[in-house]
Design goal:
The chain is of the alpha+beta class. It folds into 2 domains: 12-198, no CATH class; 200-274, no CATH class. It is built from 13 helices and 12 strands. It has a 4-stranded antiparallel beta sheet. β4 and β5 form a beta hairpin. α6 (87-101) packs antiparallel against α7. Mean pLDDT is 84; it is low at 1-14.
């Protein structure tokens, strides 16, 4: 059953990240009343054979070793039969693979396992892994399993940002779960919709980069058929800067010389830059 983290030296603000208080529990209780969610949880908990795990002989032997250590949960009709996992159990196997690639010991993984399968509340029998997996699959929320020296927990991207900003941990291992779920559910296709992805288009990103990188007095964006295809970057220079110097490293430009009383008073360089997505 879910408990608040209480560690010596960890202040109350940090101990409540991510927030698992009454509002969180009320939300979980509410969604669990849905028949659709219950049907989905039934599918989550139905064990099936993930043949990719057993067909590779080398990984088959690794799975057998992990199984003998009690590190994985599965069902097997016979010693020679396929191992059957439900979705969360298969996700845990994928997490173990990532942790082993990072040289996490099997002993440490054994201590981590109870946190991965932890129930939120016995009155509402759904695990943290199931709740976060539901949100990862159907809301495309970037979801992570984080291992810090004193604890392990699930985080959404926004929660992880808050934890990092409040220095909840100085060092940790972060496992991004959405790509692992995508491999387990290739037909469904599990994506990660980060907040900044939906807010800025490629065209807008290119405009922002131009504004940040270029040295200019004025920029004119030119648009045709609903799309910006070019920007004219204007910059004024003192008269002692030669046209040759202004042309160095640039193409597709014009230089206008301002003459006052027969003398060069200033020069203006205009670089005509076509945007990457332009067909002009």
């Amino acid at each position: 059953m879910l408990r608040r983290r209480t560690f010596i030296g960890l202040d109350e603000e940090k101990a409540n990240i991510p927030d698992r208080g009454d509002v969180f529990l009320s939300h979980v209780y509410h969604i669990c009343q849905s028949e659709k969610i219950q049907d989905l949880l039934t599918l989550f908990r139905t064990r099936t054979a993930y043949y990719d795990m057993d067909k590779d002989w080398r990984f088959y032997r690794v799975l057998s070793h992990w199984d003998s250590k009690g590190l994985i949960e599965c069902e097997r009709e016979s010693m020679d039969g396929w191992r059957k996992f439900n979705l969360i159990e298969a996700l845990w196997v994928s997490v173990i693979q990532r942790l082993r690639h990072l040289n996490t010991s099997l002993g440490d993984i054994g201590h981590i396992k109870p946190n991965f399968f932890e129930m939120i509340d016995w009155e509402c029998p759904i695990s943290l892994a199931e709740y976060y997996t539901l949100c990862a699959i159907f809301l495309e929320k970037p979801t992570f399993f984080v291992l810090a020296p004193l604890w392990r927990d699930f985080f959404f991207y926004e929660e992880l940002q808050t934890a990092l900003a409040t220095t909840l941990f100085e060092s940790c291992i972060i496992v991004h779960l959405n790509p692992l779920l995508n491999k387990l559910l290739p037909k469904e296709g599990v994506k990660s919709r980060f907040p900044f992805e939906s807010g800025i288009t490629f065209e807008q990103q290119e405009i922002l980069e131009t504004l940040a990188k270029e040295d200019f007095d004025k920029i004119t964006f030119r648009k045709e058929k609903g799309k910006i295809y070019r920007c004219d970057i204007e910059k004024g220079f003192a008269p002692d800067v030669s046209e040759h110097a202004l042309k160095q490293g640039h193409k597709n430009l014009t230089i206008t010389t301002n003459i006052v009383d027969g003398r060069t008073a200033s020069r203006t360089r205009t670089i005509k830059k076509h945007l990457k997505g332009s067909t002009q």
